[in-house]
Amino acid sequence: MRTRTLGGLALLALALPGGGAWAQSYPTRPVRFIVPWPAGGVADITTRLFGRKLTELMGQQFVVENRPGATGMIGCELVARAAPDGYTLLMATTTTHATNPVMYKKLPYDPVRDFAPISLVADAPFVLVVHPSLQVKSVKALIALAKARPGQLTFGSSGTGGSAHLGFELFNAMAGITAVHVPYKGLAPATVDLLAGNITMSWESTAAATPHIRSGRLRGLGIGSAKRSPLMPDVATIAETLPGFELGSWSAMFAPAGTPAEIIRRLQREVSAAVKDVAMREQLAALGAEGVAGTPEELAAVLKSDVVKWARIARQANLRPE
């Protein structure tokens, strides 16, 4: 009788959410894939690429929903409050999970406590570009010029506290220079002013920078990846001049906290398979991103490291949370 009771409990455990059999059959219905940014942007297109591939690999529709607003906070809060059953997922970015916690006193979500990390999916390194009227052709030469002309060189960003702004504050700190920040309402107007020669330099995605570099309208000095990128193999890394410097924007999949570990692992395996697909890698490259994958533990480590790094840079630059 005791044996039958234990056997019954084991079967019940498998039938309950979180049990192995239940997780193995996941998903049995469409999955909501939330992107906290407007349609048409890089984050949106990246999410749709992965949504289509996961639909193909897992046999259920991954339905992409755009929930933009408040620097990604609206979409993130929706997922943070969703049932932890694997049927609501988030495509997070460096902004939503690494810089928002630094730049805002209160968030409607906790990027660590409220989410279960699944996997990194893409990394888009930033490229340091300057107007060609600036007579420098390397990061080393740019730093030397900035030291000779303190406070005279300017850099544009998509807005105060964004990744591009914090990235230049990091560059200032590591290079020992004082280039001046000029904030814009988005990266597009900053690029327009850079092309016109109204500012000295900016960060661009590889996709945005490539045509301007090829035409000679901008000069690419260095890329923010840890090692030379296949997206721009001829461009030196900034780390070759400033060891340890890295700057880019990652995209990563998260689920609500409490989602069963078996589901997290299943999704991680499918993301890894998606990233290995040649067509997927080509499509991501066209967006200026490299397909990456990793374990939930690796993603958690990246998140923790980035929050610490950007908090330190914000303090050094005297940037106060809003």
Main beta-sheet annotation: 10 strands, mixed
Under the CATH scheme, which class of the largest domain? Alpha Beta
Reported CATH architecture of the largest domain: 3-Layer(aba) Sandwich
Question: Percentage of helical residues?
Answer: 40-55%
Indicate how many domains the architecture comprises: 2
- The total beta strand count reads 10
Shape label: globular
User: What is the assigned CATH homologous superfamily of the largest domain?
Assistant: Bordetella uptake gene, domain 1
Low-confidence stretches: 1-19
Q: Whole-Å distance between the termini?
A: 63 Å
What value does the average pLDDT take?
91
Give, in order, the helices and strands.
HHEHEHEHEHEHEHEHEEHHEH
Taken as a percent bin, the fraction of beta residues is: 15-25%
In CATH terms, what is the fold-level topology of the largest domain?
Answer: D-Maltodextrin-Binding Protein, domain 2
- What structural category do the secondary elements indicate? alpha/beta
Any idea what the radius of gyration is? 22 Å
Number of helices: 12
Account of the protein in words:
- With 322 residues, the chain is an alpha/beta fold.
- The chain has 2 domains: 163 residues, 3-Layer(aba) Sandwich (D-Maltodextrin-Binding Protein, domain 2), CATH 3.40.190.150; 116 residues, Periplasmic binding protein-like II (D-Maltodextrin-Binding Protein, domain 2, 3-Layer(aba) Sandwich).
- It is built from 12 helices and 10 strands.
- Strands 1, 2, 3, 4, 5, 6, 7, 8, 9 and 10 form a 10-stranded mixed beta sheet that branches.
- Helix 7 links the parallel strand 5 and strand 6.
- Helix 5 packs parallel to helix 12 and helix 7 crosses helix 12.
- It is globular.
- The N terminus is likely disordered.
